[in-house]
From TrEMBL:
<dbReference type="InterPro" id="IPR006121">
    <property type="entry name" value="HMA_dom"/>
</dbReference>
<dbReference type="GO" id="GO:0005737">
    <property type="term" value="C:cytoplasm"/>
</dbReference>
<keyword id="KW-0479">Metal-binding</keyword>
<dbReference type="InterPro" id="IPR006122">
    <property type="entry name" value="HMA_Cu_ion-bd"/>
</dbReference>
<keyword id="KW-0143">Chaperone</keyword>
<dbReference type="InterPro" id="IPR036163">
    <property type="entry name" value="HMA_dom_sf"/>
</dbReference>
<keyword id="KW-0186">Copper</keyword>
<feature type="domain" description="HMA">
    <location>
        <begin position="3"/>
        <end position="69"/>
    </location>
</feature>
<dbReference type="GO" id="GO:0005507">
    <property type="term" value="F:copper ion binding"/>
</dbReference>
<keyword id="KW-0963">Cytoplasm</keyword>
<dbReference type="InterPro" id="IPR000428">
    <property type="entry name" value="Cu-bd"/>
</dbReference>
<dbReference type="InterPro" id="IPR017969">
    <property type="entry name" value="Heavy-metal-associated_CS"/>
</dbReference>
<protein>
    <recommendedName>
        <fullName>Copper chaperone CopZ</fullName>
    </recommendedName>
</protein>
<dbReference type="Pfam" id="PF00403">
    <property type="entry name" value="HMA"/>
</dbReference>
<dbReference type="InterPro" id="IPR049740">
    <property type="entry name" value="CopZ"/>
</dbReference>
<dbReference type="GO" id="GO:0006825">
    <property type="term" value="P:copper ion transport"/>
</dbReference>
Length: 73
C-alpha cells in the first residue's frame, strides 16, 4: 500500500540540491515518487511502507547534506 509523506527540508538552495535529494530518495527500494520543492523547502514522497521506512527516507535526505524536520500533516 502506498503512503504519502511531506518532509520539511532545510539547506536546499538550488536545482543541484533538488537533484541530489531526488537521486538519493529515488534510489531507495519502495519509493514510488519523489517531489522536491525548493520554493516550499519540502520533499513529498510516495512510498510502500512495507519496503521502506520514513527513517530511511530521512536518512537518505540527510546523507545528501540537508536537514529534515518533523513531517507535515
Amino acid at each position: 500500500m502506498t503512503e504519502q509523506i511531506t518532509l520539511p527540508v532545510s539547506g536546499m538552495t538550488c536545482q543541484h540540491c533538488v537533484g541530489r535529494v531526488e537521486k538519493n530518495v529515488s534510489a531507495l527500494a519502495g519509493v514510488d515518487k519523489v517531489d522536491v520543492s525548493l520554493e516550499n523547502a519540502s520533499v513529498a514522497v510516495a512510498y510502500d511502507k512495507s519496503a521502506v521506512s520514513v527513517d530511511q527516507i530521512t536518512e537518505a535526505i540527510e546523507d545528501a547534506g540537508y536537514d529534515v524536520g518533523a513531517p507535515k500533516a
